[in-house]
Amino acid sequence: MSVDIIVGAQWGDEGKGKIVDLLSKDIDIVARYQGGANAGHTVVFDDKKFILHLIPSGILHESTVCVIGNGVVIDPVALMEEIDMLKSKGIDIEGRLFISHCAHLIMPYHKMLDQAKESNEAELKIGTTGRGIGPAYVDKFSRSGVRIVDLLDRQTLADKLQRNIKQKNEILKKIYQKDELDTDKIIEEYLAFDRLVDPYITDTSRYLNQAIAAGKNIICEGAQGTLLDVDFGTYPFVTSSNPISGGAAIGLGIGPTKFDRVIGVVKAYTTRVGEGPFPTEFDQTTSNQIRSLGDEFGATTGRPRRCGWFDAVLANYSAQINGIDSWALTKLDVLDTLEEIKVCVAYELDGKRHTSFPASLQKMQAAQPLYETFPGWQAQTSGIKNFAALPENARKYINAIEQLTNTPVSILSVGSSRDATIFKS
Ligand code: GDP
Ligand code: IMO
Ligand code: MG
Question: How many CA atoms lie within 13 A of 7 on its CB side?
Answer without folding.
Answer: 33
